[in-house]
Specification:
Layout lengths: L8 E6 L4 H9 L4 E4 L1 E2 L5 E4 L1 H12 L5 E3 L5 E2 L6 E8 L5 H15 L10 E10 L4 E10 H20 L4
Parallel strand pairs: 2-5, 4-6, 7-8
Antiparallel strand pairs: 1-9, 2-7, 3-4, 8-9
Helix pairs in contact: 3-4
Length: 167
């Protein structure tokens, strides 16, 4: 190990082929859909943390609809990192709501972690940006502290948007 810390990644990427997301939108107007991703030669797989996240959400946020798109092989990663699945967010679940849901899930998962452990978190969410209607993919890689800072930025932006006066 060279002592180099991995760089945090926070990005919004336009989705070029949004047909799968648009089909989800047309069929489901609510909630979260866990979808498999293409992973190298393995084809479409679901991350193993996806099942735990789904169970946790159903128990701790029962008002949020969360489904798995289809049964696929699980990709099990052997590391201290958390690899949450790719999700599609319906219009009733804004990205800041999803980020808070992920942060709460991670808080519960890490209750027994040692104080000096800083596991990495990896997740992506596809959503429709309003009012532009552009479908984007949000990708995050970082530790829990970076996620908390990101959530605070979203909260501040929402606060500033709410305090604007109409022209």
């Amino acid at each position: 190990m060279l002592g180099i810390e991995p760089k945090d990644l926070v990005e919004f990427v336009p989705v070029v082929d949004d047909r799968e997301y648009r089909a989800f939108q047309a069929a489901n107007s609510r909630g979260i859909l866990i979808v498999p991703e293409v992973y190298g030669e393995a084809g479409r797989v679901l991350t193993s943390d996806g099942g735990d996240f789904r169970k946790w959400t159903k128990h701790n946020a029962p008002s949020i609809s969360i489904q798995v798109q289809e049964k696929q092989p699980l990709l099990v990663r052997r590391s201290a990192s958390y690899w949450l699945p790719l999700v599609f967010l319906a219009t009733d679940i804004a990205l800041p709501i999803y980020l808070n849901l992920v942060a709460s899930y991670l808080y519960d998962k890490m209750k027994g972690a040692l104080g000096n452990e800083k596991p990495r978190v990896h997740f992506s969410a596809v959503f429709e940006e309003t009012p532009s209607g552009v479908v984007k993919r949000f990708n995050f890689e970082g530790d829990v502290d970076a996620l908390q800072k990101l959530i605070k930025k979203f909260d501040l932006n929402e606060f500033l948007d709410d305090t604007r006066t109409p022209d």
